[in-house]
Amino acid sequence: MNLGTPVRPTASLFVQLLALVLLTLVAAEVISLFLIFNLPPPTPDFYRLTEIEQAFHGVKSNFAERRPLELRTVGAPAGVPLDTHLAPTLRAEIAKGLGVPESSVVIAVDRNPFSDRRVLRTLRDRMAREGAREEHFLVAPFEVAVKRPDGRYDEVRPQPAFGLNPWQQRIALWFVLSAMAIAPVAYIFARRLSAPIRLFAGAAERLGRDPRAPPLALRGSAEIGVAVKAFNDMQERLRRYVEDRTAMVGAIAHDLRTPLTRLRFRIESLPEDQRAKMETDIDQMEAMISAALTFVRDASQPGQRTPLELSSLLESLCDEMAETGARTEVETGEKVVLEGDPMALRRLFANLLDNAVKFGGRARARVTRQGTNAVVEIEDDGPGIPTADRERVFEPFYRREPSRNRQTGGAGLGLAIVRSIARGHGGDVALLNRSEGGLTARVQLPI
To answer: Does the pTM exceed 0.70?
Structure first.
């Protein structure tokens, strides 16, 4: 059997995953460097000392995009006192503007606003563009507090910020756009890496339906190439195993006919009462052998699969059985079409309908679609079946009525053939007792 066209493996899965990770890291670094060298540094909120003094007097200034200043009374400033060479000058200038002693003025900050010279230079350039005279200022966040006679402090500070400032919004927008640019590349890589696994799953599901399915021919990494070869070898071994066992059963059944024929000739000289019993046994054995040979022939020679409409198939079977007096009917339902072997499926449903009529008096069939499966249910009004026997009845040659009487059943291969055909189409069959009495044979087949 041809195991598929040899394929030239690409780079190993490890190398492809490593390349994807490295590509993502490099892209992130490039984006970060671009932002650092091209976006201007953020301009923090800064406030001239005259604006702070006006806030102490309750004057609300127009701060444009800056956060407004708020005046409140606190027990003591929460920040760290400003400790730079400009701190005394700033305190003296604020004290002079407010007309209070310099010792009562406290300036507290969360960080040193002049530690970053780029910020200082940006602020001075902005003030120059605005045409304002150069004067001292403070950069948020800060607290300017003036001690009151009762020991508490009147404090002015910028209102707390909520959400992202404009510079942070620009950075976030850049990262979102960068992620959108990288996403298609990551998607392509992910699809490329996951496609072989998805095809493997499909091939395994197809193998479960048909061991004679064509071998898998799949391009991919070195690991995928090894897995494809192992999968094809396994499929070939399974095919040979099934064919060998099927051929062996057929050969045994065929060879048993010769001694049975000799026995039939030898019993001719026996008394009538003994000959009648032996002939009955021989007839039953021949029936079992014929059923086994039919089963082997059908299993070894699968038919061509074509589109089938299940409701029409069931209606034709019920009409044929009704001509012989059987009570059968098909409920009107949706039309469900699937790919299947017409002769095999016809035999499957014929066996179930025949069992329903034989053991339950009548057969009612219906077809429904459930997701990606077609479901055929055949009900009868019989006694049902014990739970312990629900699976055993699908075993070859097993019968709950052990007499092997042709009037009460066959050789015990009917339900075994039903399950074999259903599973050969990727589905299954189950027997369920109905709460109101009777049995439901439920066949599920993939569409």
So the answer is: no
